[in-house]
Amino acid sequence: xxxxxxxxxxxxxxxxxxxxxxxAHLSCDPEDDRVVTHYxxxxxxxxxxxxxxxxxxxxxxxxxxxxxxxxxxPGPDSILAPPWVPWSERVRAGDLGPGDxxxxxxxxxxxxxxxxxxxxxxxxxxxxLRWVSEELGLGRARVLSREGxxxxxxRWYAGSGGPTDPVAKAAPAPCSTCGFLVRLxxxxxxxxxxxxxxxxxxxxxxxxxxxxxxxxxxALLPKPSTRRAEPAEPSLDPLYPSSSDDS
Length: 247
Known about the structure:
- This protein is 20% helix and 22% strand.
- With 247 residues, the protein is an alpha+beta fold.
- The strands form three sheets. The chain has a four-stranded antiparallel β-sheet, covered by helices on one side. A three-stranded antiparallel β-sheet has the order 7-8-9.
- A hairpin with a 6-residue loop joins strand 3 and strand 4 (65-74).
- It holds the Pfam family DUF3027.
- InterPro entries: DUF3027.
């Protein structure tokens, strides 16, 4: 009886969808004993592929079908919003604007406690300086961890400041031999520096030692030749005979 109660289901859907939002009956699916869901096409603009689902039921030993609920559900061809993603996973490089704040989680794997001095080259002087700074409260709470440093190095090396950039491939020499390269400190300073040439497209940016550009400090103009030009051989113009021929 529930499967045959199409008119009962249609009337219930009509009260919710309105005469302009209800289309043809599509199908019905059994949910349980004496419980069936009827599906109708939704004709509201913007809801292509959606279906009105009307669940009807019948009590035991009863011949009356009642309506349980009417809901609008997406079909297999419906246009849906993309899955929700937390903001921390949606943020991309370049999204941060003036006045925006990007909180860093306490367990960020890119960072390590400042007392570890993970972003410095190990040395006796660095160890002593670390303890003095900690006692005076001058040290940073957190510094780059090894994971954070490795990720930064991979990102920089694969980016526009690395050796695979078209500008670098056409450069006359690498940045490691350029006088405008300012070396970084710490472990990153073994591979990267900062360009200080205002005419370079990388001015003020991190570049790898094997990066390069046309503004290299040793990209000098060729020296002018000191060889003297040989005088041209004298010749006679056949269109203008010499004065000796006229006499």
